[in-house]
# Entry
Amino acid sequence: MATITECRGALDRLSNNLARADEGVRGAAALDRSLSCHITDLDTTFTGRLADGRIRVDSAVDGPPPAKAQIRLAMTGDDLVAMVDGELNFAKAWAAGRVRLEAGFRDLLRLRSLL
# Structure
């Protein structure tokens, strides 16, 4: 089972990957939205922002998200690490119910190119 430190590291790697991505991916991630990522097996939520094509993690809190972020993710720590490491396809994990993604319709349309 992935640890909180490993999950935080995976989010940092994801942010760096987004920053180095090609123009199309960076454009899709160039939103300014609040973000939460609930790690279900650790019952911990990372909160922050997706802005300027990067993810900024502001805090980690126990339990579910304390407030409704504009983009909300939920998954196990192992799935987060596997996705960031390229071992698990996000779209397949989402379709199988292993990952939950909630956002407004327009944000989902923009984020679909990241999937």
Observations:
- The helical segments are 4-20, 23-28, 77-84, 90-95, 105-111.
